[in-house]
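Internal QA ticket QA-208
Title: Verify multi-chain structure generation after dependency bump
Assignee: T.L.

Test input:
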Amino acid sequence: MEFIICILAGILFATGVYNILQKQLLRIAIGTGLISHAAHLFILTMGKLKRGQPPIILEGITEYTDPLPHALILTSIVISFGVTSVVLVLAYRTVNENNTDNMEQLRGNEYE
Amino acid sequence: MNNLIVLPMVLPLLTGVFIVFFKSYIQVQRWGTFILLLVNVGISVIILRQIQIDGIISIDFGGWAAPFGILFVADSFAALLVLTTNIVSAICVLYAMPTIGKRRETFYFYPFVNFLVAGVNGSFLTGDIFNLFVTFEVMLLASYALITLGGTRLQLKESLKYIAINVVSSSLFLIAIAYLYGTLGTLNMAHLSMRIAESGQTPLLTVISLLFLIVFSLKSGLLLYQWLPGSYSTPPTAIAALFGALLTKVGIYALFRTFTLLFYHEQQITHTLIAIMAGVTLIGGCIGAIAYNNIRQIVAYNVVIAVGFILVGLAIMNTTAIEGAIYYLVHDMIVKALLFLLAGTMIYLTKSEKLDEMSGLIRNYPSLGWMFFITVLSLTGIPPLSGFIGKVLLGQGAIVAESYILLLLSFMSGFVVLYSLLRIFMSCFWGETIISEEEETPLSKKVIFPSAILVVLTFALGFGAESIAPYVQDAAYTLTNPSVYINAILPD
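Actual output:
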């Protein structure tokens, strides 16, 4: 099972990197989203996908899944939500101010 | 008593939240932030002295014993950096008051500065690697807000690149943490260090260490500094000074922590790589500092050179070199802030960023000119000033370790720093006076006063090197002997 999820995370990563290297601003935002998905899946996999009950203490259950990666992912999901919304609003403002969403045309040519 | 070490992070957070409610009462925001930072300076001095007496101080949150809960750890290295951070940011806030403009002040400039300081202090003090990620994000989100605050076209352009690169490096950081957790099953730094030592740093762990190297290099601008000159030259001066003094230094701190505490077993791989990266950073920074005709760009490339210089100390990895690197790190935080403030003041006075559009400023603004000259001398490492002792110790360490190429590169970079800054000094302050006395923009005392404090500090650090020597020696001793750190956290 870990093997399959690792390949899935790899695919997410590859598509994310491909999107980040594009010129359109929105694609870059999508790329960062894909990369953070890949990272979160990866944390889950690294905590081992052993079969077990959800980490809630109930009577009569002895096998639980590892609760620590869940807590880590939850934290980092919230952080990446915050960052993604900042990126989206910023992209919106940049497009409005500069009248382009092409990264090539957003180069600062003010310094010579 | 050890509750004291959470205050450098908790107080700015609380103040930041508190002054959000005083949107239109700018005086409350200003002086609230400034007084908080002064209180923090006092607290960090107390912490520093306490560490001299008791050894490393740590606090387990919620009473959970070391490997299971999260914790804050203050050793001399962290405490010295916290102290310097608070001093520098207090002075930047003092500079921001007359210069940043009413519009930015009403749009939550001071709360963001508070959160930035909280993130930086938290990164220095945490003893848990995932907590380090979180405090990094606190710092970075505040810096995203500060870099875009005001929303001019240029700022928006450059900040997108800055944010994109930091989002990617944060994801890489998460993945590195996931690998580390998958192989070792813990996130506490002391516990990690123990488990790595037990397994003798297998090749898998070395690969993970290289991933950490990439992550922190992106944050600190070691070799991967291409985002830095653009994004540090667009925000207003007070913000640029905060960034130049603090942000890359957190990356440098994280590199020192990981490669002295965790991954110190395979030095011929990791530390050789750091040495190569530091060397190339020095060369690249030097080329950039010479190439540009724009004051802000030259100053930004000087940050890159300093990063390379400090990381040479880590690459050499003996006590003398690390001691030198710590002296230089503290000196560089203070003097880089000073350099950014002075360059920003020059741009504010002449309304131009180009070298060839300024001339003869020394007649109009003698105090500014001589302060700039002192900064140049201090950054180059002329003896009575603060840059000297760090350079000498680092050079000594390099000679002991027989790494002559690094020695040559790091000392040659000193000449380039001298050349690039003297070029600013000679072409802007000497020569014909362009601005007549009637036309000159008055330089108010409020604007020049913060820089004057920093000049006094660089003299104090230079003459009083003896008085901070015990702290620096203790910091270097702890960094080179990881067992001291581990025994303080996990008493078995």
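Spot checks passed. Chain A has one domain: 2-107.
Status: verified.
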